[in-house]
């Protein structure tokens, strides 16, 4: 795609990076066939190609973002399916993230949106705040239908709806394998996952130790920054990134095999730290080392090999590959191969490449579209007649659970069970 940025504009590293991305686009339209919002809405401006045109015009002419442009950029899930499809190697992820940061600083949203977005950015990345907010949300759920009827408050209603009926108690995870014949790993603690599903972390620790790893946690670690980064709040995102780089660098200096991540949405962002801090002379090298050591839990388990199977009930598992796994990290076969190696009958839905509608905070800010995508995904998974649905991302698990009665678990819960751990909490009523 031809561009006309000025030399002064290209002196900005972010603008130069976006210009290089735009120039790679050849208008072929392959991306439209796999874009969830385009296939759902049929609007060219809700496709990656259409959004690239909007972003090019906005950045090149340094326009104040219009309400129409913001609407279409906001509707993007950042599922990155377009990057898997694109034959030209267009890095749409970096482009849309830059566009969102540009919009955040130059567009004044209506006050209900500003309040809600500021609230989400202040609460969700902080586990203690998130836990307290969920307790309040459960009490406020009866008013959700009233909020649903007021358009500016629909996102608030969606946020209340996502609050679980019961909140699991805090769970302290202890590590036991001090020897770690395979070496030491740091397990990323996360923000939403330990609040909503603490059993995932517990299963991961047991499984990693069974594989021969010494498991540690990094002091000073916080949210990976993905949530605020994808909202365009770049200052807050990079603050979290730098703090994590510092925390993990201290662990790297002690000797470290990997930074293990169980929430694939976080993993995609951490693996991009090197890019995000590429122009920071203090952090660039350290961030690149962190990104190189960041591994999804499935990568670590696949490399180590699963421990001996301990016997369990043979189940049919519908595997939902998170977009951040298959499109963001390009891990397409490892998780399902691990489930098969553990003795499960694994099936994939026909629309495995399409997003479930979670997409970080998308199901809060775009509840109507997210509901349609979630309903469609739940239906295709149910068509597989599974005993359980497995995924590798907490956001996907919560989203799909909203639309199905089939138990939804993280893959590590099944792998832990298959190699000697307890049955997943969602399956405790079934004999194992």
From TrEMBL:
SUPFAM superfamilies: 4Fe-4S ferredoxins. Pfam families: CCG, Fer4_8. Keywords: 4Fe-4S, Electron transport, Iron, Iron-sulfur, Metal-binding, Repeat, Transport. It catalyses: (R)-lactate + A = pyruvate + AH2; glycolate + A = glyoxylate + AH2. Binds 2 [4Fe-4S] clusters. InterPro entries: 4Fe4S_Fe-S-bd, 4Fe4S_Fe_S_CS, Cys_rich_dom, Glc_ox_4Fe-4S, Helical_ferredxn. It is an enzyme of class 1 (oxidoreductase). The keyword Electron transport applies. One of its GO terms (molecular function) is glycolate dehydrogenase activity. Its cofactor is [4Fe-4S] cluster. Its EC number is 1.1.99.14. PROSITE patterns: 4FE4S_FER_1, 4FE4S_FER_2. Residues 16-45, 67-96 form the 4Fe-4S ferredoxin-type domain. Component of a complex that catalyzes the oxidation of glycolate to glyoxylate. This is Glycolate oxidase iron-sulfur subunit.
């Amino acid at each position: 795609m031809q561009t006309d940025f000025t030399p002064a504009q290209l002196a900005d590293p972010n603008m130069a990076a976006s210009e290089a991305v735009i120039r790679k686009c050849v208008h072929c339209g392959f991306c439209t066939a796999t874009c969830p919002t385009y296939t759902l809405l049929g609007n060219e401006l809700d496709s990656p190609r259409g959004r690239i045109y909007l972003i090019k015009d906005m950045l090149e002419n340094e326009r104040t973002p219009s309400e129409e442009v913001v609407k279409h950029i906001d509707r993007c899930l950042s599922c990155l399916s377009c990057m898997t499809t694109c034959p030209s190697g267009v890095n749409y992820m970096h482009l849309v993230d830059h566009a969102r940061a540009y919009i955040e600083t130059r567009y004044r949203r209506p006050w209900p949106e500003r309040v809600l977005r500021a609230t989400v950015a202040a609460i969700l990345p902080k586990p203690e705040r998130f836990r307290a907010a969920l307790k309040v949300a459960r009490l406020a759920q009866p008013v959700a239908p009233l909020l649903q009827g007021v358009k500016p408050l629909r996102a608030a209603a969606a946020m209340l709806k996502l609050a679980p009926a019961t909140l699991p108690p805090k769970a302290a995870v202890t590590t036991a394998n001090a020897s770690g014949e395979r070496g030491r790993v740091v397990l990323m603690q996360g923000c939403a996952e330990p609040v909503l599903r603490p059993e995932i972390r517990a299963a991961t620790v047991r499984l990693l130790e069974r594989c021969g790893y010494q498991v540690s946690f990094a002091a000073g670690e916080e949210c990976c920054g993905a949530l605020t980064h994808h909202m365009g709040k770049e200052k807050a995102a990079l603050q979290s990134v730098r703090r994590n780089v510092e925390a993990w660098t201290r662990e790297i200096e002690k000797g470290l095999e990997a930074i293990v991540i169980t929430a694939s949405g976080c993993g995609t962002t951490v693996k991009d730290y090197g890019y995000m801090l590429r122009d920071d002379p203090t952090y660039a090298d350290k961030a690149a080392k962190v990104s190189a050591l960041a591994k999804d839990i499935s990568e670590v388990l696949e490399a180590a090999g699963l421990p001996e199977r301990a016997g369990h009930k043979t189940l049919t598992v519908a595997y939902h590959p998170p977009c951040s796994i298959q499109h963001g990290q390009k891990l397409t076969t490892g998780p399902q191969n691990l489930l098969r190696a553990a003795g499960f009958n694994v099936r994939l839905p026909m629309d495995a490449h399409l997003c479930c509608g979670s997409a970080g905070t998308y199901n809060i800010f775009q509840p109507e579209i997210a509901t349609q995508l979630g309903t469609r995904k739940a239906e295709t998974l149910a068509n597989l007649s599974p005993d359980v649905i497995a995924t590798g991302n907490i956001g996907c698990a919560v989203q799909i659970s909203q639309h199905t009665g089939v138990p939804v678990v993280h893959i590590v819960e099944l792998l832990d069970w298959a190699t000697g751990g307890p049955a997943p909490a969602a399956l405790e009523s079934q004999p194992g």
